[in-house]
Structure formats: structure tokens, C-alpha cells
Amino acid sequence: MHLSPPNFDAVLQATASRPAIHAESGSSTDPVSALDIVNLRDLFSNDSSDGVWSDMRARRSHRWTRVSSGAAAISRPHESWTDTAATIEYWASDDLPGLIHGLSAPYVRVARSGYWTKALGSQAFTPLVASAKVAEIMTHLSELSEGWNGPGTQAPGAAVQGDIIRALANWPAGIREPSIEVDDEGGVALVWDGDESSFALTFLGNGNVVGTLSPFTEGHEPWVSAVDDAPGIFARLSSQNVAQLTA
Amino acid sequence: MTGCVGVCPREQVQLDPISIGAIGDDEFVARGAFYPSHTDKAGKVTNQLFKKSDLLQGTGSVWRVAPVGRFLDELIPELEASRPNNPLKKVLAVKVGKIRGLMLAAGGREFSVVDECDSDINGGKHPAHAHIAICKAAIAGVAGIEDPIVIQAHRDLLLLFRNGAVWESLQLKAA
Q: Which among A88, A219, A220, A223 counts the fewest CB atoms within 10 Å?
């Protein structure tokens, strides 16, 4: 049996219109304040496999689509984590309406290091990174391992990747897609190049991002911002001189 | 933290006894860009061309090129042979005066360029080898490579070299 790729536009549209979110199990009804998956669309279109999952509770089989790995971040009252190699399962929408605790499909659950979260209604999902380019970046980073560029070179760790995810959580429209530069010391820079100048956001995994406009220009000193301060970061991207590169 | 203003005393004298002398502002220094260490597949130079830690330690390795230093037709085969598994994509050269002209936000120079002849970590030396170093005055009190001063200096230097290609591999041009 082979399923068509999920229609994510429909998923996201449904997500936006569904405010109430509850965990699957009766043991918890914690609302999900944020559940974000990076490059969901990309993963489903390129790295999914289809099969049959037997739902013992429902005593019937459902078609399902399983994603081998992806980046996910969960933040709700009883748990908070970021994992760049989470396992994500998705059930096609036409299989599930009303079958699981009244949740209408689509239906998703996420696993971290073998531990399955309580399954979550798809309305919990919001696109973390709208840019396909940034989704590509995250996929690329998760593929690097220690020694990727010769002995002693460091791969960007989960801390760096988590910082990038957080910084780009509200990626605004109108920002040109950056190129990515990974250094041997475990850092990652997102770079907007012009002919004679360049702007970079550098992530080192310490919870901060450093912005630099090169060559140094009066009034554009290098700055440091917490990665969670997305509005502040993007305000700087929109400032004069920088905007010429990023817009 | 501010860097040195104007003349750096370390640049005015011959530091290494075997060097061809102190380095003038009009000289060019060059660095090979290898794939995948320093460029992407398309030959675009990445931030790995120089390691921040090397610049911080004062060991950003470059070659002094002709007419004062080495001729490219001699240097390029040596560079290619030095990393048989990493194709040389480009040779990038920058006028020393431009490197010395990079300025810190807080004032003063970002870099010095000195005639240190240690060309590798195994004791190799060459009279036409040189080092680029973040100004010692600028990094007094700097914690490490995560400091914005270091990151800004690194990016500024990359921009100079990125635009300084004086040789590209035929493979790259064909691609």
C-alpha cells in the first residue's frame, strides 16, 4: 500500500483554525503551547516510508507514514526539549476522523530517543521554519558527525542546532535565504553575501547569536542577542545596510 | 577593547631570522582554498578558510607572493601536493595593507601580519611564510572564539580573501 504525500497546506490551514489541543492519553490533558517541527514538508516528501500500523486500542489498522528523523522542539508544562533526530509519525488524514479520542486527523506523534510522547493532534503543529532553504540547512547539519572535515573537526552539536531553530522560529517573509557556513569548531553561520559586503548570524551553541556586518561599518557594531529574541534579531536584519543584503 | 592604532611594532622588525624580512603594506599574501575544507562544491569560499582559533593564537597561515615572495607557478603545485585528497580550488591573495586596514568597532586595528616562518605544525619553515594574527591589544581580555570581536574580525578577513581570487582550478572553471 502506498500513500500519497500528506497535503501540508491543508494540514497547516487546519492547524491555524483549531485552537484546542489535547494529548492523546486520558492521563494528561495538558495543552500544547508549542510543538514545532522543522522541515516537516521536506522530510515527508523526501524521507518518508509508508506502511501499516496496528492500533491495538482501536483494534484496527491504519495506514501511516513514518519519518525516520527530523528536528523537533516541544515545549509544554511537563516537558521541554529539542531533538534534531526525533522520529515523527504521521497518519494520513482520511484514515482517522473520529477514531482516536475524538481528534480529527491528521494525527502526529513524536519520539525522542525511543520515548514516545503522547500522541498529539496535528493542530499542535505550527511550521517552525517556513523557508525551505533553512529546512535544508537543518537537514544538512544533522548529517554531519565529529571529524566531518578531517581529524579533530567538530560537528555542530544539538545546542547549536537548537539555537538556530529558536532564532528562526518566526522567520519573516521578505528575508532572502542565507547561505550556510559550518566551521571546524562546531559553529554555524548564516550568511548573506553582497559584492562588497556581507552580513552573518553566527551560532556557537551558547544560547546567543552574534550579528556582524563586514567590513565593519560605523554604526553597525557586532551585536549579541539571545536566540529567543526573534523580534530583536529580525529588527536588526531590517536595519539599513543589513537590509540591502538580507532583503 | 581597542586594537593598535597605526604602526604595530611587531610588524616593523624581522621576527623570524630566516624570513625574507619584515612585510610591507604593498606586498600580497596568499592562501590556498581546498575542497571541502575551505570551499563548497561550487568553489565558494566558506568560513573555514581561516579558523577563528588560529587567528586568535596568531597563526593564520599565509604565503608571501611575488614579486617579494613566491611565484604562483611554484607555490600552486606545492599546495596541491600538500593535500592529495583535497583538491585545491582557488588561491586567494590580498594586499597586506588592506588586512592591516581592517578596523575594530571600538577603534584600532583588527589584525597584524608578521613574518613568522613556521609553515606547519611539524616544524616546517619557509622564508616566505607569514602569519595573520588578531591584534594582541584587541584581544586582551577576550574570552575565546565566541567573542564578538573575534567573530567580526574573522568575518572581515574572510570577505577580503573571498574577493581576492588570483587562481582557480580548471576543474572549477569547467564546472
A: A219
